[in-house]
Amino acid sequence: MSERCKEKTLARERGDTFYFTKIPCLRGHTSKRYVDSGNCWECRRIRDKERRKNRTPKERREFHLQLKHNISMVEFTQMLEEQNYSCAVCNVHESKAPREMLFVDHCHETNRIRGLLCSSCNAAIGVLGDSANSIQKVIEYLK
Fold it and tell me: What letter would DSSP give residue 102?
């Protein structure tokens, strides 16, 4: 059994994601390799970077929604329609919002989606630490 096969077998038995040999890949990288495929980590990183670069803005948005919020573009569009394409806090229409789009607002502790906000309202809530108490203090201060 070759050195690479031994390392891969041992890594798989330990439940590791990667294994390492000093044997370079076909492109000359001596980085770690994935146990599942044997692919070089550096080659996969370069390939994935190229794929991300070639995505359209719509594809990037869909990927982000799925990865960060676990919702599809269809679900996002349903939320937009339910909110009449307007921010849930200030009611500014998406077309007049600062970045001309609405963002998914979620609880950072539970990841529960609360609604869609313009970038200004989303930033304000974020700066206040998602705290109703802090927001109440701001209200009192403004009075």
Answer: -
pLDDT tens digits for range 14-62: 988 888 888 888 899 988 888 888 889 999 999 888 888 888 888 888 9
Give the pLDDT confidence score for residue 11 in this predicted structure.
84
Hey, what's the torsion of the CAs at 127, 131, 135, 136, to 10 degrees? -160
Among the listed residues 141, 137, 102, the one whose alpha carbon sits nearest the alpha carbon of residue 120: 102
Can you read off the two tokens belonging to residue 6?
Answer: 């031994």
| Alpha carbon distance 126, 105 (integer Å) | 9
CATH at 119: 3.40.1800.10
Concatenated DSSP letters of 102-122: -EEEE-TTT--EEEEE-HHHH
For residue 64, tell me if it sits in a domain. no
Considering its fold, how many domains does the chain have in total? 2
